[in-house]
Specification:
By secondary structure, this protein is α/β, with parallel strands linked by helices. It has helices at 11-22, 62-73, 111-117, 159-166, 173-176, 235-240, 246-260, 308-341; strands at residues 4-7, 27-30, 42-45, 48-51, 77-79, 84-88, 92-95, 103-105, 122-123, 128-134, 137-142, 147-150, 152-155, 180-192, 202-205, 210-215, 227-233, 269-282, 289-291, 296-298. The protein binds flavin-adenine dinucleotide (FAD). Residues 7-13, 30-33, 38-40, 53-57, 127-128, 156-158, 161, 185, 187, 232, 275, 278, 300-301, 306-308, 311 line the site of flavin-adenine dinucleotide (FAD).
Length: 342
Amino acid sequence: MPQLMILGAGVAGTACAHTLSNAGITLEVVEKSRGTGGRTAGKRFEGGVFDQGARYFTIKDPTFAKYIQAQMAQGTVKPWHISFGSYHPNQGWQALQDQPTRYVACPQMNNLAKSLLGNITTHYQHKIIRAVYNSSSWHLYSDHGQVWQAKQVVCTLPYTQTKELFGSYLSNPTELSKAGVNTPTWVVAFTTSHQLSLPFHAGFIHSSILNWFAYENSKPQRSNQQHTYVLHASAAYSQANVDTPAAEVKKTLIDAFATLTEQTIHPTQDFTHRWLYADLIEGQSLGELYYPEVGLGLCGDWLLGGRVEGAYLSGVQLAQKILRDYTSSSLIHNEESTHGNS
Ligand SMILES: Cc1cc2nc3c(=O)[nH]c(=O)nc-3n(C[C@H](O)[C@H](O)[C@H](O)COP(=O)(O)OP(=O)(O)OC[C@H]3O[C@@H](n4cnc5c(N)ncnc54)[C@H](O)[C@@H]3O)c2cc1C
């Protein structure tokens, strides 16, 4: 039995796993999907790849900066130096000035989480559907009938899913919703045989339908054979069309982009994905939550700003809290055994 099980191999889960494992804690990760990275996942298709979730990340915090510097030295993270713009219905297209440096993991965004995970044992394609705490250990039940037992559990799922699984063990489940709730985002990607004529390589769109576009080939180390573009729907459109058929969403987004850029678009391939828990309506920054009385820790972007950097820091901070708890309880054990021996 591992000391600890981590639910979710996104950035928060892998950052937590990396920090705990480096400190000698035995742990395993269980992940519902086929791969690592969670909302930094990419999508491979014939002739290329695109980032289906997080587009890039920025850096503010020195701890995150230090980790990213090490990754840059290994070539797994690179700055994305391109022309960024924005579109406002009243002002048209404008270049964005004085922008923070944007970084991408290479060859796909999920490589950040992959590097953090290293060779830590991970059980993919197991969705945890039930979690039960019995006096001193957890039992985690997967949708494939597997059960894992561990003394401690770290949950890195977005708020709504965390509450579903662990709500009855949390002393303050309703309070937690103030930390931030993730809302849906529709993402459409398409390829073309000729490069589109665009004012910028990527940018923010302030329209009722779209809020982002990117020419994926402009990211470092993407060697797509065809010109690949990604569009994100606005929060308002995504929320209002959460149950709209994917084919209809795809057509609406591509048509809106064609109108904005004043050209006809003939996709050679296209992909549509709905993220149910994407953008964060930001709330209180709780950082992470630790309930030592039931051996449960919570981390994830929803507790710290809703971005890649926040997810990383939340995972590291929870790991540090758990390690401090281990150190102090082993001191207590040592003191007890010393007294017992005397
Ligand atoms: C479309 C989109 C665009 C974005 N753009 C940016 C951006 O440009 N810059 C930026 O910084 N951030 C961006 N983000 C946000 C960023 O991706 C997230 O903040 C970050 O990846 C969250 O990491 P996490 O580990 O907290 O959560 P997640 O990545 O959601 O990790 C949770 C993991 O748990 C797994 N899981 C869920 N339920 C279960 C279960 N029951 N059992 C087992 N495993 C389970 C999931 O599969 C997932 O791998 C974007 C997100 C989206 C969706």
